Amino acid sequence: MQLRVPGPTPCPEEVLQAMTRQMINHRGKEFGELIHQLTDRLKVLFQTKNDVFILTSSGTGGMEAVVVNTLSPGDKILAICNGFFGERFAGIAEQFGAEVKRLSFEWGTPADPEEVRRALRGDSNIKAVLVTHNETSTGLTNDLASISAIAKEFDKLLLVDAISSLGSINLPVDAWQCDVVVTASQKGWMAPPGVAMVSVSQKAWQAQSQARMPRYYFDLAKAKSFLEKGQTPWTPAVSTFYALSTALELIEQEGLPNVFARHVRVATTAREGIKSLGLSLFPDEAFASNTVTAIKTPQGIDAKKLLQILREEYEVTLSGGQQKLEGKIFRIGHLGWVTEADIAEVITKLQVALPKAVG
Ligand SMILES: *Cc1c(COP(=O)(O)O)cnc(C)c1O
């Protein structure tokens, strides 16, 4: 089965093998060495000198950690929303009592940096900007470099969901002055689900010391003090740590720039293939993501039936649309362990499955 959903993604055999290792004491020396080396290597891949933490949770837990460690109830924040995950980020902040001002763009269109500037100019009480780098739900990558430059022009805290981009699409965390950035093991990292990874800048630590949102499990100050002794506050997903270590070796061997370049080539194969079948991309093509391709369901085709046929007859698993895009689009995940040949095969199978999915 070719699993081509935007997470969880397939894991190379050696990554799966790493997970079969026996457990170790998470308060012992061996685990201390593991977490220290993983953290140091992640900093290189995040392109940052900031602190990096490995939290045992899915990506959404990491998003919650970002919010509750930097904000207080009543804080005004600007949440850039142009898809399902931007809405989730805004929703978490709202749930913990932030006063969320949404800057919404139609799903499939990019966030306009000039609109961000206008919003920040219009309200000096805004404390932080929340943004989704790669909107997995619409297959679109926002122009984070421009958005970050504007957020910094106004000296705002910049909180970034890079769950489906970091490690696959270039995101130089320090160069783009991102204060908190979150990603998750099961996306481009070629590892199983289980951990979120979060980087925290000096400015974010200052915010952390003032932030009054309730937090316990995701308290990053606790994570920092435990990391100093080579531990996590709570029992970590030890097997996922093993797997991540092996997966990072593969990324390091390939070289980060080569990993980014491969994602560009694979995404180009996907987009060109889709167009060659006469199908249309859902997002604005100039902003089409290099980790997930969203395709408009063509007239007369039943998307659910198409995905079922692909799965049952052609051994390819793709994703549907989320929420208001259900039935309207379908998506090919191409992040992590994926080659151009894999995606060429998906396109070939899609071509034969399409005529069978008339609905
Ligand atoms: C997958 C994803 C999430 C959610 O991550 P979970 O691990 O499912 O909690 C959030 N944001 C983006 C952009 C994602 O791609």
Counting copies of identical and different chains, the oligomeric state is single chain
Residue-averaged pLDDT: 98
- Work out the strand percent: 15-25%
SS elements, strand count = 14
Biggest sheet, strands in spatial order? 2-10-9-8-5-3-4
Low-confidence stretches: none
Largest β-sheet summary:
7 strands, mixed
Please count the helical segments: 12
Features:
alpha/beta; seven-stranded mixed beta sheet; 14 strands; binds pyridoxal-5'-phosphate; three-stranded antiparallel beta sheet; about 15% strand; about 350 residues; 12 helices; single chain
Give a description of the structure.
- With 359 residues, the protein is an alpha/beta fold.
- It contains 12 helices and 14 strands.
- It has helices at residues 13-18, 29-46, 59-70, 84-95, 113-122, 144-153, 202-210, 220-228, 238-254, 256-276, 303-314, 340-353; strands at 2-3, 51-56, 76-81, 99-104, 126-132, 134-135, 140-141, 157-161, 180-184, 195-200, 292-296, 316-317, 319-320, 329-333.
- A hairpin with an 8-residue loop joins strand 13 and strand 14.
- Helix 5 (113-122) packs parallel to helix 6.
- The longest helix is centred in the last third of the chain and has 21 residues, at 256-276.
- The radius of gyration is 20 Å and the shape is globular.
- The model has no long low-confidence stretch (mean pLDDT 98).
- Bound molecules: pyridoxal-5'-phosphate (PLP).
- Pyridoxal-5'-phosphate binds at residues 6-7, 58-60, 85, 132, 134, 136, 161, 163-164, 184.
